[in-house]
Amino acid sequence: MANSNAVLHLKAMMMELALDRPLDMHLHLREGAMLELVAPLSAAQLAGAVIMPNLVPPIDTPARLAQYRAAVAAAAAPYAFTPYHTLFFRAYDEATLNAVRDQIIGIKLYPEGVTTNSAGGVRNLDEAEQTLALMEQLGIPLLVHGESHGFVLDREAEFLPVYRRLATRFPGLTIVMEHITTAAAVALLDELPNLFATVTLHHLLITLDDLAGGLLQPHLFCKPIAKRPGDRQALLGAALRPHPKLMLGSDSAPHPIDAKEAAGCAAGVFSAPVLLPMLAELFERHDALDRLQAFVSDHARRIYAIDPPPRRVMLIREAWRVPDRYGDVVPLAAGQQLMWSLAPFV
Ligand code: DOR
Ligand code: ZN
Asked: Could you give the domains of the chain?
């Protein structure tokens, strides 16, 4: 499934990679000063992104959505960047869904209390059925943080039967398993036609060992937690193929350093500044650079039937050192040398 849109120029010693409309299908931009800090870092390298609604209070009314849309648009200017907004799942009536359907790409469901700012999530999925039926009818995709409240390594696996049930009960509903971390979730993609998935950069790179096998690495702590080598291998295999139902979704989730290097470490990996450079390095290492385009854009555009305005993002094979901090946030690969750089924005 090599894609011809990813143009690889080989020029003597120099190498460039052009990506057509790269997209991040799962991104946390926050609000206020944090939004101002992180939005330009994503907007500089992406044609668009799916913006998560787990703010305080959550994005769960048309008025709150309108306010957040304006804030994100202002923070991402002057880049040609399309934010695809989401609502935080709760019971919605048809009038509300009709009012917002053109302004959102989907609705994000969090089980109650499974992760950052999910206290208002769903306690009983049976009570969600009416809204899910409306979403199916109106063609609004469902994005899911699929974790149970069980043992931390088993939470995703324990949630898989819920995906099976939802996908079977609502066959017309597009369901996206967000940030999958297990080989079992990859396998489920081939079982249910209306089930899709995002995978993060960091889950393609790390296992639980990188987080907790030596000195604890708080900046690699996230939900769902990184799993076993076999899981990472399955995720990587699916991304490099790339599996036609799999999309890049970074789950870049910035927290201030005080909240990460703390006795109670907040969950989230801040990968936004290094997203495309590290992906290029990873795909190159596996001789799969020609497949990056499909993974970072083509599949998402097909699955969600979106058509962002033209934008070509250039990467150049030129080493750079990742800063230790962006403001008060520590990025993935802080201080490390990367082989691919973003070409200056033109
Ligand atoms: O690690 C995570 N951080 N996982 C999530 O699901 C939420 C996110 C955040 O908002 O910080
Ligand atoms: Zn997330």
From this structure: 7-342 (3.20.20.140)
